[in-house]
Amino acid sequence: MNPESTTSSTYTVGVYYYPWYGDDFHGGRYLREHLQPPQLPSLGEYDDRDSEVIAQHLRWSRDANVSLWVASWWGPGRREDTALLHHILPHEDLQDTKIALFYETGGRIRDFTDMDNVSADVAYIAANYFEHPNYLHIDGRPALFVYLTRVLSRNGVLAETIALMRAAASQAGYELYIVGDQVFGRPPSGSSAIGLLDAVTNYDVYGSMGSRGYAGQQAVDAYYAAQADWQRLSTEAGTAFIPATTPGFNDKGVRDGHAAVSRKLEQDSQPGTLFRAMVRQAVGLTEEATGRMLLVTSWNEWHEDTQIEPVAPAAATRSDDSVSGQAYSEGLQYEGYGERYLDILREETTIP
Questions:
Q1: How far is CA 149 from CA 113, 216, 295, 300, in A?
Q2: What is the pLDDT of residue 7?
Q3: Residues linked to residue 107 through DSSP beta bridges, in sequence order
Q4: How far is it, in rounded angstroms, from Cα 64 to Cα 343?
Q5: Per-residue b/e over 180-217, b at no fewer than 16 CB within 10 Å?
Q6: From CA 262, how far away is CA 280, in angstroms rounded?
Q7: Confidence class for position 189, pLDDT limits 50, 70, 90
Q8: pLDDT attached to residue 6
């Protein structure tokens, strides 16, 4: 895949993009609105169907060498589907930014075993997305990213799911290129599941790293050593590998139970150092077969604070509006970082 691009990168830099923000921006459910002072998106709590919001996201993306949005998709007629079909794909500023769907198995395959929606979903996707000039194709085939294929594999239904997807696409006249969210933690000694997929990647970078607080360089090194092992396993299976990155993690605004990971590599490091360290290693694992693709979790998943979308400048703080004053922040410092992460991504993916 060698898509033309106006970015200055030789990589295909993709971000997971969430077109699910409406009038209330899922209010009360993300870390940074609880900080003191709050750190809101630079665009405010936006409606992602707004033309100016989309235009600014596209401008920021191009400035940061992002040429691909892997967009969360929860089914025909759902909010994400409507935003994509009626607001994002027709947008006059889309230019050469590519779009691919991220098939949310948790919402479409009930209990990760019920296949009732799969064939109809792929038929709908084929009819409504694949012919759009901005839809991502790899080796001439429309690409579909599938969340948690590793859970489908564990439940013994991955082969059936993939067969149904390929058959539905074939019936519509397409040969599907399936990217599976198969990579997690340390790789097994072998995996027949990988061979069912055209490419594999790791959405949950946080979970695979297994870090809390300050990850440190050792954890980053260990993560990418494991990723290199996954790459060797996928190569043996004839499957492509797509490395992944993230700037940090904190889901305390939306749920309990996960320890936060700072965006600073070490306590005395500068903000953004975790992301920079990860991108530097990820680019070394990119492959020509995918256009040297790497993925960022995420552009705007505010609920888990993995977003690189700009935050309005604000003073760094550890304080939040909880009773203890640090239940959301876990005592980690958060800054109103502006465009810091776009700058890091551009710097680390631009070849002089």
A1: 11, 29, 17, 22
A2: 59
A3: none
A4: 6
A5: bbbbbeebeeebebbebbbbbbbbbbbebbebbebbbe
A6: 18
A7: confident
A8: 55
Which segments of 109-268 are extended strands (E)?
137-138, 141-146, 177-180, 199-200, 240-241, 244-245
Mind giving me the DSSP string for 167-192? HHHHHTT---EEEE----SSPPS--T
Question: Among the listed ranges 136-140, 170-174, 185-189, 214-218, which one has the minimum average pLDDT value?
Answer: 185-189
d(CA 57, CA 300): 10
Return the closest-CA partner of residue 25 out of 6, 38, 8. Answer: 38
In sequence order, the 6+-apart residues with CB closer than 8 A to the CB of 244 are 183, 201, 202, 203, 205, 227, 282, 294, 295, 296, 297
- State the Cα–Cα distance between residues 147 and 196, nearest whole angstrom: 15
Query: Taking the alpha carbons of 131, 122, 140, 231 in that order, is the dihedral positive or negative?
Result: positive
- Judged on CB neighbours under 10 Å (0-12, 13-18, 19+), 91 is middle
Closest CA to 299 of 104, 58, 8: 58
pTM to 2 decimal places: 0.96
Q: How far does the chain reach from its first CA to its final CA, in angstroms? A: 22
Predicted confidence at residue 2, as pLDDT, reads 36
Residue 130 is which amino acid?
F
Q: DSSP string covering 251-306, please?
A: -TTT-SS---B-SSSSTTSPTTHHHHHHHHHHGGG--GGGTSEEEES-SS-GGGT-
Q: Taking a C-beta distance cutoff of 8 angstroms, is the pair 318, 37 a contact?
A: no
Q: What is the C-alpha to C-alpha distance for residues 241 and 206, in angstroms, rounded to an integer?
A: 18
Instruction: For residue range 90-143, list pLDDT tens digits in order.
Output: 999 999 999 999 999 999 999 999 999 999 999 999 999 999 999 999 999 999
336's CB contacts (< 8 A; 6+ apart) are 39, 311, 312, 313, 314, 315, 316
Q: Which residue is it, tokens 């694992």?
A: 285
Select from 263, 270, 265 the least CA-distant residue to 249: 263
